[in-house]
Amino acid sequence: MTKKLKILILAGDGVGPEVTAEAVRTLKTAAEVGGHDFQFRQALIGGAAILAEGTPLPQPTLEAALSSDAVLLGAVGGHEFSSLPPDRRPEAGLLGLRSALKGYANLRPSFAWPGLTGNSPLRPEVVEGADILFVRELLGGLYFGQPREWNKQANAAWNTMRYTRDEVARVAKVAFELARNRRSKVTSVDKANVLEVSQLWRATVTELAQEYPDVKLEHQYVDAMAMHLMNTPRNFDVVLTENLFGDILSDEAAVITGSLGMLPSATVGGRVNLYEPVHGSAPDIAGRGIANPLGAILTAAMLLRYSAGLHEEAQAVEAAVRQVLDDGYRTMDLARGAMSAKVLPTQEMGRRVREAMLSVRVEAPRGA
Ligand code: IPM
Ligand code: MN
To answer: 1-113+258-368: which CATH number, 3.40.1010.10, 3.40.718.10, 3.40.1160.10, 3.30.460.80?
Structure first.
């Protein structure tokens, strides 16, 4: 069946435009092959929007996002904005967008691609077979809690980690549901030995688990989790976290794949799903055409899966990524041990993935 989708592209800053271009080309290829009708629009966000419009989230961008079926974002941020207060920085544009779109469950798969196990600083026998799905709460906690302030007179600053029971329950539900289609295990991360908010978190997740007797629930303190993730990454299936813990642990989990440039994400549960690679704007390599587009391309696969319901097409993208990695192709960030002839620029990597999409057979289904 033909799918019709209006997709808003927010390329953003730094390497955002370079990697997003490859994600869009991937989506166009998927649409062409399947006879789907994807319409693309573009708008400004982050530093690019500050420079052009004086604000990181211009009203037309917000309106375009709310009237789209899916939003695909590149990255925001840059050194030139580092002295601005948090509410005027490029990142504020992204946070404003997240809260307007209302997606509260940020899905961040971290997968040990077989062709890449030699790229991880962890020993291959530790990472081989690791396949984790982080479910990061995205609309609460320290990122949004009030009060928040840097009080110059008092020479003090504060943020608030706040959750309601409902905010915890709705994201936990997503984790349990997704675990059912995977290996039926949820690891809930908190700091319940110190924080009241974590005690509420743990109590809520424990209560909800009764509705999922087929799913095994375990709790981990965030500090211990940071260690277990590196020691025994294969022990984890779905990892449920509050906002900041998930931000930190999902970057740490990039070590499993060998590069932050490999990680995709999808934010679901709200009015419009938001898709963004986990990596940032990487200003040090921006504009040189060498960034890794695979995180963005895998993000496009998540869009196909969660916004278009095109599961086979999503798997075809993932299988194509697997193929090019198995063939030994790498971007700069993954170059360790690769023959220089196989280290590709951004566009060439994107092209190889599309080429592989047209030829691979979808055998081993995987994904979030
Ligand atoms: C991420 C990023 C964002 C976050 C920033 C850019 C606001 O680090 O998506 O992980 O902290 O959520
Ligand atoms: Mn982050």
So the answer is: 3.40.718.10
**pLDDT tens by residue, 11-53:** 999 999 999 999 999 999 999 999 999 999 999 999 999 999 9
Q: How far is ligand 2, taken at its centre, from the CA of residue 329, in Å? A: 26
- Nearest-CA residue for atom 4 of ligand 1: 247
Q: What's the Cα-to-Cα distance from 88 to each of 46, 84, 99, 189, 351, rounded to whole Å?
A: 9, 6, 16, 31, 37
Domain boundaries, the chain: 1-113+258-368, 121-256
Q: How far apart are CA 177 and CA 173, in angstroms?
A: 6
Nearest atom (ligand 1) to Cα of 94:
7
- Kindly report the CATH number that applies to the domain delimited by 121-256: 3.40.718.10
pLDDT tens digits along 289-318: 999 999 999 999 999 999 999 999 999 999
Measured in Å, residue 251 CA sits from the centre of ligand 1 at: 10
Q: What is the pTM of this model?
A: 0.96
